[in-house]
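Quick one before lunch.
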Amino acid sequence: MLVRRTDAIDALADPGAAGWGAIAAETVKLMPAPAAMQPTRYIATKWRDQAYGAVASLDVQGVHDGATIAFRLRWRDSAKNAVRFENTDFPDAAALLFPLAADAPLFMGAPGQPVNLWYWRADFPERARSDVASGIGSSRVVDDTAITARAAHDGEFWSVVLRRALKVQANAAESVQLEPGQRLRTTFAVWEGGNLERAGIKAFAPQWVELAIEA
Ligand code: HEM
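Model of the protoporphyrin IX containing FE complex:
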């Protein structure tokens, strides 16, 4: 997927901006994160026979202006869930995963092979968390100010734009560093809050998506 260079990145902060119509989108297929890979037998057993990972695909677009990068994620979810409350209400959410080590596995990294997660939740629609993980069960928050977001729900689809500086100083070692001309890979996860999806119970893309950041 090409992350196009643009000089209209501020206008494209708006998920409904007409300018997104000119940016090629990649449709990424999703599947439920396997119950067998959940960290506890309790979760694995509880969800083994329950349908989850409700969101089947995600459309992704990317632009940058040499200093800032923006991704637009768009997926079908007709029920807007924007509340987190104990064990009864979970917000819709979406995430990108970037390897911080060349061969970090897409299943949330592994010990010594960390990944950086950009995690947006509908109950905090104007920002995304930057987390790091070195395997399933190990994710932790690194920062929650570097990535800004704007989200819109049109009754059928979520459209969310995440923006961050290509390079960050704070928490640099635990944050993906990007530059024009770079090729890297990423993958995605989406949580349908209305289906009580959270943590490991979600839909994810079981394949890498190759990104090319236009020079
Ligand atoms: C087989 C695939 C996957 C499995 C089984 C899985 C499992 C889990 C589990 C058990 C947790 C909760 C424990 C923890 O925080 O480490 C978790 C959290 C998380 N995962 Fe995954 N994961 C998978 C793939 C992914 C992918 C591809 C992404 C991103 C694109 C992702 C993003 C996240 C995020 C952001 C959290 C933190 C959520 C929170 O704090 O509530 N995961 N995952």
